Amino acid sequence: MSNIPPRILVLGTGGTIAGAGSGGTGAGYRPGGLSIEVLVGHLAALGLSAELLPQEIARIGSQDIGFAEWQALHAACMGALADPSVDAVIATHGTDTAEETGLLLDLTLPTTKPIVLVGAMRPADAVGADGMRNFANAVKVASDPAAAGRGVMLVMGDAVLAARDARKAATSSIDAFKSFPRGSLARVTPSGLDWFGPPHRVGEAARYAFPTGLPRVAILTAGAGMDEQPVKALLGIGCKGVVLAGMGQGNAPASVITALAEAAAAGVPVVRSTRVDEGIVDRNVEEDDDAIGLVAARALGPAKARMLLMVLIANGVTDAARVQAGFDG
Ligand code: GLU
User: Fold this and answer.
1) CA of 15 to the centre of ligand 1 (A)
2) Mean pLDDT of the residues in the chain
3) Is 92 a catalytic residue?
């Protein structure tokens, strides 16, 4: 094993991990208040054996992230993957949309070097702040060559989660993320890292080309007693795809399903996900997807189903069978 410390590109986007101004209480703070240089400086004080190369992409709350930031993040990651002097990438990120950014990068980056997203639930100046520990854990993961081949990962709460499986499941707990259908890939602390199995990704290549833009895709949450008018409204504003955050196994009132089937027949792909916290949505359980042309989201919740559907449509995949294959993969 080489004694040369790994060189890690650290991309800053903002979020609570860079949050400041809370006066110790964790309230009333500004996500992204600290620059990535300051964060990396805090970490350097821990004496971790890694060379960190800070680069600022943005300093925002991740509720405001969008295509421009994703494009910059992807380009910076591609640069690092092509640069033999860089061993890995860490991106600091707000937790609100870490699952969307994580999945987008997972779908569109090769797996040749570790790519790690990290966030925090408490601002950097709050009592009991978790950001520096999560950051130190992310450095531990990114420094391990065995982290390559696992796709994009999220490090939070002493756990390493596959971006495809991770979702935010609590608004303020420092254990805010859950992993489904697989559990976490590893346990990590600043001094230890235990992988629970070998890398799971097949092949090094990116699954999809990074898009030149993302289409308008909406999430429609089903509610008891609703009618089909919201579906019509979404089509009326030019949605190119719809994700149903359905009841149970992706269900909705009959008139809503009929309107969604009409949208699918008109060439707007429709994916049935669930508003339930966790679980698989399968094909042809209560709805006859084969007959009505809808797609089952399988293990992806609404936010990630929307991201995958946007990437598929941007890559020219709109036919229900091919969209389904994307969700099955
Ligand atoms: N809403 C902010 C964001 O997602 C802060 C939440 C957080 O980072 O935990 O960036």
Assistant:
1) 4
2) 95
3) no
